[in-house]
Inverse folding.
């Protein structure tokens, strides 16, 4: 898959998906969506589709479908969607024109809030609440981005094919837990604890270490030796997952035109 | 039984991470030693089959510097030969006569060897072997076995790792170990294009059970290579001189074209060797290949002394016997506690795994518990036995194993017991 196409999938299915979590975990976002009652569909021609539903003060994300949404936004290409995510292009509304003002004002406030938490600065990270949400959303982004990378990135597919079957738990002490499940040819991810015993565990000592890990500021080998990053279980699973995690950088932090 | 702490190791490591990538990189990185806090990071000194870390903890060493130590640390015959050569000269404008002495000794010792070429590390000679094979055949492609380790040059590394590009492995075909049918098919599909088949004498991947060659595997592979003009290269870097002093292929009953050696040959002095059959000497001469320290005379003198000593004491046989004795006792102790300690590979280079917990977490805890009591065990890599391991080392190791099994029994209860 071409770079722009996979980047669009990651933006839609991993980054935008975070709105679900943000609306549940961030007071300001929760207050923002409290009275919203609408669904927004995203359709990328030649790419993925998804729908966000706001109802009863909650947000839910459904990949793979945009039909039936009150508002439907069309993107003529993955590149178009990626430019929208970078705020250098606008979507094409094809349904729900009366919601346009809402989209540019209220919904934009929510996506700005997401951006705020996903773009940390050293000053912002001083605040415990910010740090907690940054780590939460970073892990959430990472696992869903991995799902796309393992399926569509040529190197990711290659790496994934070499990983033995098993479940890897990714956990932050005092923070969130997620898991990756490799069962060839399937690769699934999940939020929270897996069912059954994992074959490998990667545990980050605290939120500071986790933040450094997700910002690619951590040398994992040194961190393991210092006890900041604790690994247990099947090393080939940990090694493969680490290579997959490193591919996220290739898409989300080194975005190319 | 006393268990160890590693305060000074960690203090040094804290300094290291500021100035060295990974703190400790490569195969000596503590990262795969799990749980890492149960392992020392820095050695202070070593003697015989033991080393002492910077905190003063004493270990019976079952990694032997990951293979190079074969006669014991600070072996007098080797160190004296090295010291004598050091007095004469080491890295000089001209090579020393000991280079010829060592080549002659290898040609005499190993029936497969008509010549010898010296370098420093195993990967120097595995890469050289492929260059020779390509020069000799005019072909590009190379067959390797999946999981086989031949060094860290880009062509050796698994696809997807950092710094590796598609181009680095595009002429390499990786097939499953012991799968002759696949080999035959791959050779047929690439008829006239395969320069070399490179393999270890038996399959000793990291993180997995080791596998000996199936009955008749090597003679069939050898015959296929001969028929198709494929150069058969044995990477004997890890196994060399621990199975058979004439080369590990002799142990398994076949004859390769080129054999790569390193690790045990110098008992810790830096040297590697490619030996080969006469018909490849001309190609070896035509490939330009060298390095700043490849003509160091001290490691050559040390290697000559190491080989002479190994021959004198029948070292490979001694290591196999020591390994058998140690492993059978350890398996027995494991059984007493309700655990299955599976041993694969050969007794002088065993790979061990407690099968009760497939995640390896229990095995990792047990290896760590042994290490904290003075038997340095890795849980991810095959171990190495040396000729310096003595009866009292085995006895002490078995007692350590017993104490470590008690510890994991207390931690896990009956959860994984059979």
């Amino acid at each position: 898959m071409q770079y722009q196409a996979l980047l669009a999938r990651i933006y839609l299915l991993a980054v935008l998906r975070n709105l679900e979590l943000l609306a549940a975990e961030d007071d300001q976002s929760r207050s923002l969506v409290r009275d919203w009652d609408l669904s927004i569909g995203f359709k990328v021609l030649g790419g993925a589709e998804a729908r966000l539903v706001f109802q009863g003060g909650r947000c839910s994300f459904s990949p793979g479908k945009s039909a039936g949404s009150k508002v439907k936004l069309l993107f003529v290409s993955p590149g178009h969607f990626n430019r929208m995510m970078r705020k250098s292009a606008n979507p094409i509304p094809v349904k729900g024109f009366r919601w346009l003002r809402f989209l540019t004002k209220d919904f934009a406030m929510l996506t700005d809030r997401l951006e705020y938490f996903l773009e940390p600065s050293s000053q912002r990270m001083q605040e415990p609440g910010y740090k907690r949400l940054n780590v939460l959303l970073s892990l959430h982004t990472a696992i869903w981005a991995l799902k796309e990378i393992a399926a569509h990135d040529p190197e990711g597919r290659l790496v994934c094919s070499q990983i033995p079957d098993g479940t890897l738990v990714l956990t932050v002490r005092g923070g969130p837990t997620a898991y990756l499940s490799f069962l060839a040819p399937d690769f699934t991810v999940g939020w929270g604890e897996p069912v059954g015993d994992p074959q490998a565990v990667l545990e980050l000592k605290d939120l500071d270490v986790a933040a450094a890990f997700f910002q690619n500021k951590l040398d994992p080998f040194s961190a393991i030796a210092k006890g900041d990053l604790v690994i247990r279980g099947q090393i080939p699973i940990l090694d493969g997952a680490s290579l997959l995690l490193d591919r996220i950088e290739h898409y989300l932090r080194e975005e190319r035109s | 039984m006393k268990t160890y702490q590693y305060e000074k190791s960690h203090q040094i490591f804290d300094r290291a991470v500021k100035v060295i990538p990974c703190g400790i990189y490569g195969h000596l990185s503590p990262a795969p030693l799990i749980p890492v806090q149960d392992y020392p990071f820095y050695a202070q000194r070593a003697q015989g089959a033991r080393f002492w870390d910077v905190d003063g903890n004493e270990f019976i060493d079952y990694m032997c510097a990951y293979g190079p130590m074969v006669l014991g640390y600070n072996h007098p015959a080797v160190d004296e030969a090295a010291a004598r050569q050091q007095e004469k000269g080491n890295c000089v404008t001209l090579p020393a006569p000991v280079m010829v002495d060592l080549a002659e000794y290898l040609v005499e010792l190993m029936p497969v060897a008509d010549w010898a070429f010296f370098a420093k590390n195993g990967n120097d000679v595995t890469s050289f072997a492929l260059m020779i094979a390509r020069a000799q055949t005019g072909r590009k492609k190379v067959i390797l076995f999946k999981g086989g380790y031949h060094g860290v040059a880009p062509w050796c590394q698994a696809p997807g790792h950092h710094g590796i590009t598609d181009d680095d492995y595009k002429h390499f075909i990786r097939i499953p170990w012991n799968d002759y049918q696949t080999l035959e098919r791959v050779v047929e599909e690439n008829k006239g294009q395969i320069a070399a088949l490179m393999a270890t004498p038996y399959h000793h991947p990291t993180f997995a059970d080791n596998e000996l060659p199936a009955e008749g595997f090597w003679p069939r592979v050898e015959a296929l290579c001969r028929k198709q003009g494929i150069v058969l290269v044995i990477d004997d870097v890890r196994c060399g001189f621990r199975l058979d002093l004439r080369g590990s292929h002799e142990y398994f009953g076949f004859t390769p074209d080129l054999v790569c050696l390193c690790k045990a040959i110098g008992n810790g002095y830096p040297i590697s060797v490619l030996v080969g059959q006469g018909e490849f000497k001309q190609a070896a001469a035509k490939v330009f290949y060298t390095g700043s320290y490849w003509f160091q005379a001290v490691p050559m003198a040390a290697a000559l002394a190491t080989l002479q000593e190994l021959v004198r004491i029948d070292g490979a046989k001694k290591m196999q016997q020591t390994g058998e004795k140690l492993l059978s006792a350890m398996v027995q102790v494991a059984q007493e506690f309700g655990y299955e300690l599976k041993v694969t590979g050969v007794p002088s280079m065993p790979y061990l795994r407690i099968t009760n917990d497939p995640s390896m977490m229990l095995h990792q805890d047990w290896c760590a518990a042994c290490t904290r009591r003075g038997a340095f065990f890795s849980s991810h890599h095959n171990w190495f036995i040396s000729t310096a391991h003595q009866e009292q080392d085995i006895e002490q190791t078995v007692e350590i194993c017993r104490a470590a099994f008690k510890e994991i029994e207390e931690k896990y209860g009956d959860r994984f017991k059979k």
